[in-house]
Structure formats: C-alpha cells, structure tokens
Predict the structure.
Amino acid sequence: MDTITVADTIRNISRQHLEENNGLLLGQSISAVGWVNNTVPDCTGIVELPMTDVAGAGIAVGTAMVGRRPIFVIRFQDFLILNGSPLIFYAAKSKELHGRSTPILVRAIGADGIGPVHSGVVHSIFMHFPGFRVCSPMTPKEYENIWADFMAHDDPMIVSEHRASYLNTEELEDIIRPDATITLYPISATRFAAVKAAQQLAEEGIICNVVHILWLKPFIADERLTQPLVNTRRGLVIDAGHEIAGASQAIAYQLTQATAIPVKALGLEDHTKCLCPPLKNELPTAERIAETIRTILTTELGSHV
C-alpha cells in the first residue's frame, strides 16, 4: 500500500476542488518553484498572482465574495502580514457586519532556517481578530479534517502549514501515560520535537503526556485536553511562533482558566529569527523542550528529578 504524505493530501484535495467544485487556487510563483513543495496540482483553476501582496490578497478575497471558495497560497508565512489587510478588514468582518460570507482558505506556509523574513510562524496574530478559524495541521488526516471543516462553514480559515509536515505520512496520536508528571501541548512543527523530547526524558525517568493541538481558534478546552493536565497538575504549551503574546501563552491561559492549574508557555525567544548566531532563533527543539521541563520540575520540587 502506498504511503500518502501531507503534501500528497493537499495536492489531491486541491485537484478535486479545482476540477469538481469550480474552485480556484491563487498565489505567487505557484508553478515556478516546485509547485509549492509539490502541494499544488498541475490542472485548471490556478491563478498566478503578481508580486503585489495586498493586491493579490484583495483579488483572492474577491473570488471568495462571488462564491468560488478560493485556496490562497502564501508561500512564506511572514508574508501573511503583508497580505493581511483584505483578509482582516474585509474577509473576517463581512459576515458579521454585512451578512455576506467570504469563505477563503489561506494556506500560510511556515518554515525554519530560511532567514529573517522567510522563517516566521505568525498564526498568533490572526487568532487575535474575530471572524477567522485558525488551525495548524501536521498529518494527512488532519488536513482532510480541516478541509471538511472549511467546506462545512462559510468563514475564512487560516491554515498554518509548516514545511516540516509535507513529507510526513504518520498520524500523531496523543501519548497518555498514567505515571506522567507533566502534560505537553505542542503546536505546528514543535509536535515532532515534543514527541522526541518525551522519548528522551523517559530514559531519565521523567514521563510526559503529549496532547497534540490542531485547532488554535476556536480553541475548545474539552476533556481530551484537560483531563491529562488534571492528572499531572503541570502543563507546557509549545509553539513554533514567538512566545510573547503568542499562541503558546494564549492557549496556556485558556487551559489554566479551564482547570485552575498553572500552565507554562514555550516558543521562540524575543529576538529576530535569523540563520546564524547570535540571532539564530530556532523553534523549540527537543533539547530545549526537555531542558524546560527539567527546569519546571526542579523548580517545583526543589531538587533535580
């Protein structure tokens, strides 16, 4: 049986939408550089946009207004900020203010190690604005699920993709251990690192739950998310974006509110994300996650675990 990657899944969903649903796919340099990591099909319904970010986003929003349910591809998630104006000030507001839905699926692609303006993960910003659904799928089935959600609703959706997911073929199941001492809540590409950190710490006798976060907004603190935290009494939310005022802090706060258990946050440090020291600011690695957990346990227990 052939294995299906996340990239395969996105490409197959896109092809079906373009060929069968009268959909559109818009973006810059779609066919010029590897068809966006092999996630875009070579078929009808593709619109190559010029390198004018605000104008391109406006065109994509316009196609949503007339019912085409476009897929708008932003090849580097940092550029989501440049493209944000039509999304924030029309797509996200039109349903509530004017009774006119603007269903657009924005594929905002994150990365790591591609320099200070191509390596960002900025989904936190769009969690802030009313009207968006925001998710970060990292597996084939998760992408199928968020696509079904997009087609079932009429809201604009920010899909925080990450290039680290594209070759992944495996589903990331929650890891729940009865003897766990802390529950990890990783987001985006940190989900791979969190699983690795949990494996490393298990060799030291530190057992971790890993509860994967797909939906950033709406974020629903249901039993799947809260019960492991209630059991461990310690939690850590981990994100690939900046920590301050970011998704990690926002979700940690919501989990704390739901359980009355203090939950900590871990994300990018508060300085520019670049390629080399002293400004190399990587997303939390397995080593950094493990060290953070050791520090939490050491501080709370008053001795090394």
Q: What stands out?
A: The longest strand covers residues 235-242. The domain at 182-301 is CATH 3.40.50.920 (Rossmann fold). The CA atoms of residues 21 and 97 lie 27 Å apart. The longest helix spans residues 286-301.
